[in-house]
Amino acid sequence: MVGNATVLEVWSLASYVSTTWEPTGPTPDLLNQNLLDWGQQPTSASDSEAFSGLRTTAVMPSDCHVHYPQLKGIVTRLYCRQGYYLQMHPDGALDGTKDDSTNSTLFNLIPVGLRVVAIQGVKTGLYIAMNGEGYLYPSELFTPECKFKESVFENYYVIYSSMLYRQQESGRAWFLGLNKEGQVMKGNRVKKTKPAAHFLPKPLEVAMYREPSLHDVGETVPKAGVTPSKSTSASAIMNGGKPVNKSKTT
Fold first, then answer.
1. Most buried by CB count within 10 Å: which residue of 50, 83, 155, 162?
2. Radius of gyration of the chain (CA)
3. Where is this region: Disordered (predicted)?
């Protein structure tokens, strides 16, 4: 049974290894067995061949000369149950498309915690983030707003919820979602039982990632010779965008 296991756990991807790891692709038999364990069966010879062709690559910085801890993730497309593939445009804008061949639909799914992932556009290098009002936006830096809990829902669809924000009174999670027109929705308007929140990852290859550095919400990308700054309006916020009283303890 899959239970509450994540996609990365099912594919045996959420693990740390050293940079001395030699990339070797999983065998077709192993990949097909993983699919069967996950409850999916290739529906045709072409489907089987597609999964059997999964590659393993190392995504490393060009100046990497030391032994960084590595994260094993996947390059994937995310197919929404509404009938669209999630895509990120060059400017970071998010929406859905029915075209499954465009590179704008490719995402790095990087494990950054227990059943927690970062979703990064392959072409843009930008992370998907959700702010305190439930809006999705692209982030150059990896911040707490870029962390999403990954859970396997019924029929093996996956749901992604913000790790930072949820409804203040009910505690209901805020989810990544697309509406029937393929437009992104506010996280607090998406219900986990609806097709808008259901995504089916379609992995293309296994990849090794350097663990992203965690930055504060509102921190900006430093320019050459300029000290990094932080937005004055980006105070710690949780639960529907209301400021957190740091003087109180729970």
1. 162
2. 18
3. 218-250
pLDDT of residue 88: 98
Residue 30 in tokens: 């192993």
pLDDT of residue 5: 56
**What are 29-45's pLDDT values in tens digits?**
433 443 334 444 444 44
Question: Is 70 among the domain residues?
Answer: yes
Residue 201: how many CA atoms within 13 Å on its side-chain side?
29
Distance, CA of 10 to chain centre: 15
Tally of domains within the chain: 1
Q: How far is CA 69 from CA 64, 211, 214, in A?
A: 11, 7, 15
Looking at residue 214, the DSSP 8-state letter turns out to be: B
User: What pTM value is reported for the model?
Assistant: 0.69
Q: Give a yes or no: residue 230 inside a domain.
A: no
Q: Tokens representing 238?
A: 């949780």
**What tokens were used for 21?**
């790891």
Query: In 3D, which of 53, 56, 26 has the Cα closest to residue 42?
Result: 53
Q: One-letter amino acid identity for 121? A: G
Question: Residues near 229 by Cβ (< 8 Å), separated by ≥ 6?
Answer: 219, 220, 222
Confidence category of residue 220, pLDDT binned at 50, 70, 90: confident
